[in-house]
Amino acid sequence: MTVKLVKVTPKVERYPEYEELDWVIAHGLGVDHTADITSFSQTIAQAGSIKGIETYYYMRYDDSPERNYIPMAFYTVLGKPKVPVLLHEEVEPVGELFKVIAVFSSSLLLQKTAQRALLFDGAKKDAILLVNTSITTDDVVRLVKKYNLAQDWFGKVVTISAAKIDSAIAYPMLGALARGWDRIDLDSILTALDVLGKEKKKESVRKGYEAASVKEVHVLAEETEMFKKIKREVELPEFTGEFWTPDVYYAYQKAAAEAQTYPSRIAAMPRWEVLAPGLIEFGPQPGKRNLGFTTPWRWQRPIIDMNKCTDCKLCHYYCPDGAIDFAPIKVDIDYCKGCGTCEKVCPVKAIKMVPEIEYLEGLRDEEVLRRFEQREYGF
Amino acid sequence: MSSQVAFKNIKEIPPVDYYTSGRRTCAGCGPALGYRIISKAAGPNTIFIGPTGCMYVANAHQFLTSPYAVPWHHTQLGGGGAAAIGVASALRTLMLKGKRKLEDINVVVMGGDGAMADIGFSGLSMGLSYDYQRLLYIIYDNEAYMNTGVQASSTTPWGATTTFTPAGKVKPIGNTRLKKNMALVAAAHPKVKYVATATLWPPLDLMNKVHRALNAGGPTLIHVLLPCPKGWFTNPSETVDLSRLAVETGMWVLWESIEGQFKLNYRPKPRKHVREYLAPQGRFSHLKDEDMEKIDKMIEEEWKFWEESAKLGRLVVPY
Amino acid sequence: MSAIKPMPPVAIEKPKAKVWNGARAIAETVKVADVDVIAAYPIRPYTGIMNALASMIADGEFTADIIVADSEHSQFEVVKHASAVGARVFAGSSGVGLAFAAEPIIVTALSQLPVVAAIGTRALDDPGNFGMEWSDALMFRDFGWLISWAKTVQEAADMTLVAYRVAEDRRVLLPHFIALDGAAITHVATPVVPVTKQQATEFLPPYRPPYRIDPQDGPVTKAQHIAPSLIGPEERKTIDVAQKRSKQVIAEAWKDFAKYTGREYTPFLETIGMEDAEFALIGMGAYMKDLELVASRLRSKGHKVGTVRLRYVRPFPAEELINALGGVKAAGVIEFGYSFGSPFGTGSLYHEVATSLYEADAKPTLLDFLFLGGREPTVEHFTQLAEKVIESAHKKPQKKTYWLTLRGEDI
């Protein structure tokens, strides 16, 4: 049964009250960076508070709990004199909110965000992009123009190779932030660390401040790849007043999965009349993968050397996400999260995990290769 | 009841996952991997029941998304035991009354340790006392309430740090309760057809146990140890290795009770010192050498009972 | 699948009345209603229903699976899931047992599963008390369950049948409580004309939910965890609309019921003497008969007193109530439920009545009479309260709420 589709232009709502504030959004890989991003956000809020600025920080509760390697984001909000900091817990990446975009792993320059939007969706025109990376500022700008920018950007990029200074990367990042943003200066960060009982980290902050590279940026929307590519409309089943059958459901699912902006994704969500009574959805037909949730989480991908491969099937068996087809052995990269299990279980070492930034862009980023060392809860 | 090995060769396993890709589970998630393997073994004529937990929330938490290629229904955290009985009873009665064609349908509950060993203990016990066929309770044991943020459950091992039992200045051990053995509890129910423990290693072990359970002719239970990189503070790539180390250090014992007959599946020879298993895990990083020795000794003591059970061919309670 | 065929009046079976208590009578209806799965757990006073059903099943009087659960929480989980697979189910409880089952009870409504359950209302602990109070049933009125309230054993038996018809209707698909005033119904035996197997078969279409949890309906995923920015109010709206649609379904069902059985009920309200009433006594359940007697006695003394009995709490018949109370100067709500600390210390039924009357053009003086702790009120108490209602029309009452069975000062 074919489902009749109609084009829908999403409604984009903006909230001037929220845009008056300074938002800092810090992106990281779930669990791996949770403690770092929490420290980062907390210190900024503390520094702001010391300067008499109304502030709060949080992770969108809808986005929690974070999972290993899922793109996740924390928000820190700084008020302005006479501008109240209103609660906007379900903040969406639209309009001009984010003054600072802090990125804790360069793989996130290549992927969609926690909200499945472009990194620069919702950014102010003069946003400051702060990245923990050992690649150059030029390369950062180039990557952003290719993958994650579809609007004007007349701001700054700041890079810092944080783990080189301190494995607790929040602190060099804070120093680098002070270099790039006058609103949160070095002294208030150092004082904030005193208040938080983290005096030992002040040296890392100073070193980050010194070592950071800063560059002014001037990019027009038309110069970016995503501006040309991005599709804002969605195609939805025509509303008949009936609740959905599996075919109608799959059509909605496809529209949501293929949505390229946050407003498009919201537009793909059904109105209540379409919901089958009893909270009914439909899984994929056996043999198919779940369309509604492809996973751009991976910061590294498996490369299988088919000459070495003995077709033992252990990588298919042991992939936690079932992303490796059984026959022939092949990785469905859309569903790979880069956990690295396949590399470990391969008995002939035919699989090698390669960072996405290296695979896709030929760049070597020391920060991405650091060992997983999570030892404290971030939550 | 069939005790033949259904899946002899990894090259001959069913290629289809009925719990498939495209979900919000952690990279390296042990329970998700276990779920995949179990779904392969169960096949398409299966209904999954999902009590609240990681294997509920992480497989959703959006809208217009589902990784279940077979019927799936949520139930409450403590509802797993009873929900399965409701499903099994409905199927059987509808078939008996001619309202549905006669068919073998598996009913598999994927319940976490918190769900099945704590809040749903009573319902699970009720479920095990009935005689519905093709009913399998899986306890995916990641040793804490992970979805709510790593809180201790009654299967959290001694010495593990959790958010409810953090290692601190005046309480340096972390969790001081001892791990509850749910497979043992299940086997103590009269006439339970099949009870087993499993983990991700050796390959095919879990699949064969699922197959045996579903063909055992009555409610069955498999207690599966499944490492959790988020809550155990381990590298996502280490999940399978940790399963293997759990078995090789004797921390996790692989056994089956088939209509009351005890069978020890694996005897680590020699048994590795437990520190090999504990060292990669951040949740044990606060333990001193003497603490790890204590754990190793506990394992050594407990193994006397597993050896005795193996000799007798019947379960001897190790406490 | 049988279509609903209207039967000509001559063909209506008129079976003989049997003297059954409420527990037995309800069980007898469940027996003929082609129920598939029953889950039982003992608690007074509803347990007799399950005892009767277990006995019938053991003797082969009908085919159903009866599961003895380990708790009420499990009991209601069992029927919730059996219903999702496509089985017609029955459960029940009382008092704190019902409270223990709160989690699956709420989820059952919010996931639109047409479970039918009898509540033998009973005072909640503490203290333990076998007496009758309404709060165990009424505390669930927020979640989407349809709630009907029986006056007699006969009505309880009849409501059980109609509950399946309404709950399972595709326009509704909501669970249904049949509430009855504890032991006053379950343990009191009166002549009951049973619903026959033929009547039930003709009246009830087979239960067929749109999507079952069953491999033959494909990979249905039910009750996924959601992110509210994506979906949230929409899933609640379906419940709201189902309740709104249920009114029409209820009216149709009772009309059909009369055709098959000859027993007529006005669907939402039973009103006596309300055409010209100046004073109204509003209540539910078994003690309405006593109130009707008091009303008629006062009529013979020249007071225009009428009674309004609610047969449904959910959906609440607000429009019908406003119409019935048109022209009334003062009314009293007679209830057995409480809401401690509520505005003016009034009870739950009062809240529903007062909220409805807020929309009326003319609002009568409204008093609340709380009979709590399970102590049975008498005709004497009902006479007192009726007189207070009449008095309140002339003189502003000193109090709003009255605890007439209380020993001690009613402050």
How would you describe the overall organization of this protein?
The complex is a heterotrimer of chains A (379), B (319) and C (411). Chain A is an alpha/beta fold. Chain A is built from 13 helices and 14 strands. In chain A, the strands form 4 sheets. In chain A, strands 3-4-2-5-6-7-8 form a 7-stranded mixed sheet, sandwiched between helices. In chain A, α2 (34-50) packs across α5 (170-180), α2 crosses α6 and α6 (186-195) runs antiparallel to α7 (202-211). The N and C termini of chain A lie far apart (47 Å). Chain B has a single domain (19-312), classed as Thiamin diphosphate (ThDP)-binding fold, Pyr/PP domains (Rossmann fold, 3-Layer(aba) Sandwich), CATH 3.40.50. Chain B is built from 11 helices and 8 strands. Chain B has helices spanning 30-42, 54-57, 80-96, 113-119, 121-128, 182-187, 205-214, 229-232, 239-248, 275-278, 289-312, and strands at 46-51, 72-75, 106-112, 135-141, 194-198, 220-225, 255-258, 261-264. An 8-stranded mixed sheet of chain B has the order 2-1-3-4-6-5-7-8, sandwiched between helices. In chain B, a hairpin with a 2-residue loop joins β7 (255-258) and β8. The two termini of chain B are 30 Å apart. Chain C is of the alpha/beta class. Chain C folds into 2 domains: 9-261, Thiamin diphosphate (ThDP)-binding fold, Pyr/PP domains (Rossmann fold), CATH 3.40.50; 269-402, Rossmann fold (3-Layer(aba) Sandwich), CATH 3.40.50. Chain C has helices spanning 22-32, 47-58, 72-85, 95-100, 102-110, 135-138, 153-168, 182-186, 197-203, 233-261, 288-300, 318-324, 348-357, 379-392, and strands at 18-21, 37-40, 65-68, 89-93, 116-120, 146-149, 176-180, 189-192, 220-222, 269-272, 279-283, 305-310, 312-314, 330-335, 365-370, 401-402. In chain C, the strands form 3 sheets. In chain C, strands 3-2-4-5-7-6-13 form a 7-stranded mixed sheet, with helices on both faces. In chain C, strands 10-12-11-14-15-16 form a 6-stranded mixed sheet, with helices on both faces. A two-stranded antiparallel sheet of chain C has the order 1-8. In chain C, α1 crosses α2 and α11 (288-300) crosses α14. Chain C starts with 17 loop residues before the first strand and ends in a 9-residue tail after the last strand. The model of chain C has no long low-confidence stretch (mean pLDDT 96). Chains in contact: A-B, A-C, B-C. The A-C interface holds A 62, 90, 92, 243, 246, 265-266, 269-272, 275-286 and C 84, 110-113, 170, 173, 209-211, 218-224, 227-231, 233-235, 237-238, 241-242. β10 (280-282) of chain A pairs antiparallel with β9 of chain C, so a sheet runs across the interface.
